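Quick one, tokens below:
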């Protein structure tokens, strides 16, 4: 009686659930440095999310299997194809995240689909990814083979007994009811959401509870943000101001009197951990360390995201990653927004964006136009195509030399940004350069040294140019990557810790500033340094002003984080998920009780979220012009 079509359906569904559980185990194993001591609740709680994703993905297959319980011929092949095809696509993204998580620090969301299809990078890099992550490819193929074998084997469990109409109807009703309950994640009032993973694990282990197909489905076609109200608007403006005006210099000794050129250099994947000066460990950026000694150097600077597509808007437009979708690929990028290029272009600056990558990479060319850059230079515009690295674009050394020469052709004052790329995965150098920059313990170390040397040569060239003395250089990284998790660096919140320095020796005294700074603070800090006196919009704040909020903010998988100099706080938008010490101190910098510091961090984080969501939704990312 039990050996019928429903048993076949149940076994095939159970096989999928088992495969998802296996992928979760692999996810933890391959990211053990991030998920030490994952609680058992993360695994059994994850089954609820697996059931929900599987129910949504396989609803059509289940319904057709109920309608045609014993398919033959074409129907049999069609149902088998549907089962294997849909789940092959879902497992592909689940397997990608086994390693991609190290770069993004979150389960992939719907914007990942747009990133994959933007430009030609995916096709160009697929062979390199397959070679470097061959074990992921084999894992994926093995899982597909397991599903195919299990699907065939389960079909033999049907003994072929006659199907009684009432039993078939009852079984169908029960199955459909189970499908509905599973898709909702239970019988609760509101269907299962990404943030519900916080019930099963601490904030640091939420990705273990989730699965990638679930996060993709839950963010597909949904608005990236919704307005949140935690406090009165006036209070939010006090705790996290977004309209700024500097009527006087923050520091007369560090003020730049004339209109300087501004050059922003964004270094791919330059983690502060790999700076000997910042981390007191092995260093792979000796020239950048030298520049820190000659600059206003932010020792506790944090990226607001973990991907290049999030880093560029944060650095150039003061827009943090506080939503599941990248700003560049979101609908909000269509509205007017404030950017460093836009503000300075309005003051007569010539503006340009240089990136040696393939044109269209991550939508940077479109973003540059929207941000007010008058000129975009990518791989297509670079004159020597023989310098193509075969993966991402033009090697950093020749491209930075080209950048220096092109700046000499710009009308002054100019504002320009260059974004390097050679220190991106797959971390490959030509044989002669690989020998020259060999050493280190990770594949990224030689390419960091290569790009650092390219930066040294850029400055050697730039110092010979007439525009150099009157140029403010801002140097940072887009995000961190491939960190050495040896247990010695956790006090630094290393997943977001990046170099950040402001270099103009003629006007900026060299010193270290230890207060917490972040990418979104670059725009207002530059405008403060160069004496911009008009009001402007920015989610960040000047790092020169003592009253600026002393926290960095970011988010991943619908969990918000605030990083201070002593603590990191996790918040899901409604509940405080935890407060962790970044070192041995248990009080604030002035001896304040931990709970008082946590309260200040939480209220300022809530103000930041309210400001971010509200201004995106209400199309107000600029300062409205005053009526004459």
């Amino acid at each position: 009686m039990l050996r019928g079509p429903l048993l076949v359906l149940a076994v095939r569904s159970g096989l999928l659930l088992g495969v998802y559980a296996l992928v979760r185990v692999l996810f933890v194993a391959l990211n053990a440095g991030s998920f030490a001591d994952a609680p058992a609740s993360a695994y059994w709680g994850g089954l609820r999310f697996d059931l929900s994703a599987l129910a949504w993905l396989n609803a059509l297959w289940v319904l057709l299997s109920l309608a045609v319980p014993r398919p033959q011929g074409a129907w049999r092949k069609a149902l088998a194809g549907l089962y294997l095809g849909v789940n092959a696509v879902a497992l592909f993204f689940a397997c990608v995240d086994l390693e991609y998580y190290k770069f993004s620090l979150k389960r992939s969301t719907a914007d990942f689909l747009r990133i994959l299809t933007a430009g030609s990078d995916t096709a160009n890099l697929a062979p390199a990814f397959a070679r470097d992550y061959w074990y992921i490819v084999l894992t994926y193929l093995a899982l597909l083979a397991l599903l195919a074998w299990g699907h065939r084997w389960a079909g033999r469990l049907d003994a072929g007994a006659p199907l009684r109409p009432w039993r078939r109807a009852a079984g169908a009703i029960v199955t459909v009811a189970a499908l509905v309950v599973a898709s909702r994640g239970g019988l609760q009032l509101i269907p299962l959401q990404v943030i519900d993973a916080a019930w099963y694990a601490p904030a640091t282990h939420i990705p273990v509870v989730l699965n990638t197909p679930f996060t993709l489905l839950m963010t597909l076609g949904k608005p990236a943000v919704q307005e949140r109200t935690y406090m009165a608007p006036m209070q939010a403006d006090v705790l996290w101001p977004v309209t700024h005006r500097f009527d006087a210099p923050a520091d007369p000794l560090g003020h730049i009197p004339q209109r300087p050129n501004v050059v922003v250099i964004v270094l791919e994947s330059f983690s502060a951990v790999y700076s000997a000066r910042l981390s007191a460990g092995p260093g792979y950026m000796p020239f950048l360390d030298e520049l820190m000694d000659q600059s206003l150097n932010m020792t506790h600077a944090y990226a607001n995201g973990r991907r290049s597509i999030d880093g560029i808007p944060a650095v150039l437009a003061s827009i943090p990653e506080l939503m599941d979708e990248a700003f560049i690929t979101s609908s909000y990028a269509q509205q007017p927004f404030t950017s460093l290029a836009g503000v300075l272009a309005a003051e007569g600056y010539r503006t340009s964006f240089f990136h040696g990558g393939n044109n269209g990479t991550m939508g940077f060319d479109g973003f540059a136009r929207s941000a007010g850059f008058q000129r975009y230079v990518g791989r297509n515009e670079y004159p020597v195509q023989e310098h193509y690295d075969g993966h991402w674009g033009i090697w950093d050394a020749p491209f930075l030399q080209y950048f220096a020469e092109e700046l000499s052709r710009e009308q002054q004052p100019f504002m320009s940004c260059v974004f390097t790329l050679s220190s991106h995965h797959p971390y490959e150098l030509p044989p002669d350069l690989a020998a020259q920059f060999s050493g280190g313990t990770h594949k990224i170390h030689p390419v960091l040294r290569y790009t650092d040397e390219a930066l040294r040569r850029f400055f050697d060239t730039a110092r010979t140019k007439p525009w150099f003395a009157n140029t403010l250089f801002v140097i940072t990284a887009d995000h961190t990557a491939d960190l050495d998790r040896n247990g010695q660096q956790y006090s630094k919140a290393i997943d977001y810790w990046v170099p950040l320095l402001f270099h103009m020796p003629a006007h900026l005294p060299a010193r270290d500033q230890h207060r917490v700074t972040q990418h979104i603070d670059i725009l207002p800090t530059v405008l403060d340094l160069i004496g911009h006196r008009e009001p402007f919009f920015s989610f960040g704040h000047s790092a020169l002003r003592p009253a600026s909020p002393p926290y960095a903010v970011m988010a991943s998988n619908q969990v918000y984080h605030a990083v201070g100099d002593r603590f990191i706080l996790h918040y899901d938008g409604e509940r405080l998920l935890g407060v962790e010490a970044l070192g041995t101190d248990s009080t604030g910098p002035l001896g304040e009780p931990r709970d008082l510091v946590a309260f200040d961090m939480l209220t300022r984080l809530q103000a930041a979220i309210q400001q971010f969501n509200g201004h995106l939704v209400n199309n107000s990312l600029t300062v409205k012009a005053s009526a004459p």
